[in-house]
């Protein structure tokens, strides 16, 4: 099958969501193999990437993302997760609206994305750098002050980087890195202001 006829990320994700397969984290790691790293990053960080203060409700998703990212850094080809996390539901009635919105955003990005510098994605160093970047951005989102909404940009950076890797598009991956870097800078700057303001109040 040629690249022009190959299914897109949104097509594969929509097919999985419409299948009878369990919509769990463990299931997606089995079905998608090595590509599940990037797909897990996209799915887990989509909720923290919403422009809404989460109040720490997404910390479990961020912890799982960091664990998976570290496995990518050390060169694992398959994701290992504790049995409890393998049962984590990624889809369901309560998440349908979010998943539909995510699919729309992915399709929009796919209009502009195409394979670029694809050979870079086959190197171990690139894979480790991808894992380190995701870990750093997710840690920044995890440490963002609760109810501040400051975890949005670092999380969005992770989502865009993951889509860049899935589409083998270095430009999209770099765009995600820039978004994430802006988010980290914002977390550090505004987080510092929040701390100073709290110190003055106390």
Unreliable segments (pLDDT under 50, ≥5 consecutive)? none
Radius of gyration, CA atoms, in whole angstroms = 17 Å
Question: Could you state the order of secondary-structure elements as H and E?
Answer: HHHHHHHHH
Give me the secondary-structure category: mainly alpha
- What helical percentage do the residues reach? 55-70%
Shape: globular
Number of domains: 1
| Average pLDDT number | 84
Number of helices: 9
What is the count of β-strands?
A: 0
Strand content: under 5%
Cα end-to-end separation: 65 Å
Note down, in words, how this protein is organized:
The chain is mostly helical. The protein has helices spanning 9-17, 25-32, 36-45, 59-73, 83-86, 96-110, 124-143, 152-166, 170-201. α3 runs antiparallel to α4, α7 (124-143) runs antiparallel to α8 (152-166) and α8 packs antiparallel against α9. It starts with 8 loop residues before the first helix and ends with a helix. The relative contact order is 0.14. The mean pLDDT is 84.
In short:
With 202 residues, the chain is an all-alpha fold.
Give the helices and strands, then pairings.
Layout: H1 9-17, H2 25-32, H3 36-45, H4 59-73, H5 83-86, H6 96-110, H7 124-143, H8 152-166, H9 170-201
Tags for this model:
single chain, 202 residues, 63% helix, globular
């Amino acid at each position: 099958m040629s690249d022009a006829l190959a299914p897109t990320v949104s097509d594969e994700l929509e097919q999985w969501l419409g299948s009878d397969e369990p919509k769990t984290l463990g299931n997606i790691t089995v079905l998608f193999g090595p590509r599940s790293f990037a797909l897990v990053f996209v799915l887990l960080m989509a909720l923290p990437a919403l422009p809404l203060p989460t109040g720490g409700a997404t910390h479990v998703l961020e912890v799982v993302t960091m664990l998976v990212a570290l496995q990518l850094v050390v060169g694992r080809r398959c994701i290992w997760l504790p049995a409890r996390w393998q049962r984590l539901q990624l889809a369901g009635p309560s998440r349908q609206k979010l998943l539909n919105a995510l699919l729309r955003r992915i399709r929009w990005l796919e209009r502009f994305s195409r394979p670029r510098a694809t050979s870079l994605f086959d190197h171990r160093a690139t894979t480790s750098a991808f894992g380190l970047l995701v870990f750093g951005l997710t840690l920044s989102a995890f440490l963002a002050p609760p109810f501040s909404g400051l975890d949005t940009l670092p999380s969005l950076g992770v989502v865009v980087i993951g889509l860049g890797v899935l589409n083998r598009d270095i430009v999209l991956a770099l765009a995600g890195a820039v978004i994430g870097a802006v988010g980290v800078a914002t977390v550090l700057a505004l987080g510092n202001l929040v701390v100073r303001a709290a110190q003055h109040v106390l």
